Amino acid sequence: MAVRLIIFDLDGTLVDSIVDIAASLNVVIAPYVSEPVAADELKPFVGGGAIKLMTDLLAAKNVPLDRTAVAKIFVEHYADHLIDRTLPYPGVIETLERLVDQKKAVLSNKLTHLTRSVLEQLGLSRFFEYVAGGDSSPEKKPSAAPVLRVLEHFGMSADEALIVGDSLYDIEAGRAAGVKTVAVLYGYGQGDFSTRADFTIRQFRELQEIVEKLGSSE
């Protein structure tokens, strides 16, 4: 069946935001660690939302801080520095402009207001009819619940949709919802997460070929 809806992750899929995330994180934890966290070191922790990021990172660093309190400070600082260094990945704008026959949504585990703000400030919000973050549903990815909510919003079935993301959170959420999955290999994904996906792409522009292929296979 032709693809009528594409659901995108944000960080590591549409935009490269790791430097700004790391910068805000380092401001918060600077009093408690001997060295700042490098952007590449942070990549395995991105994808589950601010509180999970803090929980996992602080545990790895053996820093005994209240994860919720630290996450709040992080979000407040990060909100003022969302696009200091953040940019869309190569080919994102051009490809979204070409995918005119598909409805498009963003489903992130990032907070909704931050997700919307990144898209607006980078001029990407015009492409998406639906934007939701990790606080928009009782469950986050890898649960199927937020994906099913997007399908319900558009009145579409799972076999009409694709989900595109750079982590196991995205792939597992799509699989659980019965949606075809596309793993991007240029993002922050770790290990062999992409082996669970239906398709993989090394550049964002390759997504158009997958969409066209699925449409021609009816």
Q: Quick recap of the structure?
A:
The chain is an alpha/beta fold. Helix content is 41%, strand content 13%. A six-stranded parallel beta sheet has the order 5-4-1-6-7-8, with helices on both faces. Strands 2-3 form a two-stranded antiparallel ribbon.
Report on the architecture of this protein:
The chain is an alpha/beta fold and 218 residues long. The protein has 2 domains: 5-16 and 86-216, Rossmann fold (3-Layer(aba) Sandwich); 18-79. The chain has 9 helices and 8 strands. The strands form 2 sheets. A 6-stranded parallel beta sheet has the order 5-4-1-6-7-8, sandwiched between helices. Strands 2-3 form a two-stranded antiparallel sheet. The N and C termini lie close together (5 Å).
Label this structure with key terms:
single chain; 218 residues; alpha/beta; Rossmann fold; 2 domains; six-stranded parallel sheet; two-stranded antiparallel ribbon; 8 strands; 41% helix; 13% strand
Superfamily (CATH H level) name of the largest domain: HAD superfamily/HAD-like
Give me the number of helical elements: 9
Could you tell me how far the N terminus lies from the C terminus, measured between alpha carbons in angstroms?
5 Å
Q: Which whole number gives the mean pLDDT?
A: 93
The percentage helix is: 40-55%
What topology, given as strand order, has the largest sheet? Answer: 5-4-1-6-7-8
User: Biggest sheet, open or closed, and with what strands and sense?
Assistant: 6 strands, parallel
> Hey, roughly how much beta strand do the residues contain?
5-15%
Question: Any low-confidence stretches, pLDDT <50, length ≥5?
Answer: none
Listing every helix as H and every strand as E from the N terminus to the C terminus, the arrangement reads EEHHHHEHEHEHEHEEH
How many domain regions? 2
The class by helix and strand makeup works out as alpha/beta
Report the CATH C-level class of the largest domain: Alpha Beta
**CATH architectural name of the largest domain:** 3-Layer(aba) Sandwich
Shape: globular
Total strand count, please?
A: 8
Per the CATH scheme, the topology name of the largest domain is Rossmann fold
What is the CA-atom radius of gyration, in angstroms? 17 Å
